[in-house]
Design goal:
Length: about 140
């Protein structure tokens, strides 16, 4: 897995402005299995947390993506990012795109989205691209 991650990082580092990075995570809860491994830079730092939240109960799987964005720019902004969920063996189990619009300067926006993942155990959540534009 380390070799795969290194290959992805080497390939991604050649792409201008876009790379695969571990998703930022807020204070982990007992059910949250994500961890932050690298500090984001630039506008990407506006994505304060992006993690999986396991809300499963009574044998029913219910795993959500949850995020928090804080607009640190001086203008109203739209954010879009692509992500992937990868297991310990390097297999992509899920991926998608998220959007947060019309975030005012200094404002914090929170969002959530359901997934089809069956577990959070051993899953690494990566942000594969990130973009902030003025709205």
């Amino acid at each position: 897995m380390v070799v795969i991650v290194m290959v992805v990082l080497v390939i991604a580092s050649g792409d201008k402005g876009e790379s695969t990075t571990s998703a930022p995570s807020a204070k982990p809860t007992a059910k949250t299995q994500q961890r932050q491994t690298r500090e984001p830079a630039g506008e990407r730092a506006d994505l304060i947390s992006f993690q999986l939240d396991d809300r499963s109960q009574a044998g029913i799987t219910d795993i959500w993506l949850v995020w928090m964005i804080k607009n640190s720019s001086g203008e109203k902004s739209n954010y879009s990012w692509d992500w992937e969920a990868v297991d310990a063996g390097g297999t992509r189990l899920a991926n998608g795109s998220q959007l947060e619009t019309n975030v005012q300067p200094g404002q914090t926006a929170r969002g959530e989205y359901p997934t089809t993942l069956k577990s959070v155990k051993g899953i690494k959540l990566n942000v594969t691209s990130f973009d902030r534009t003025a709205s």
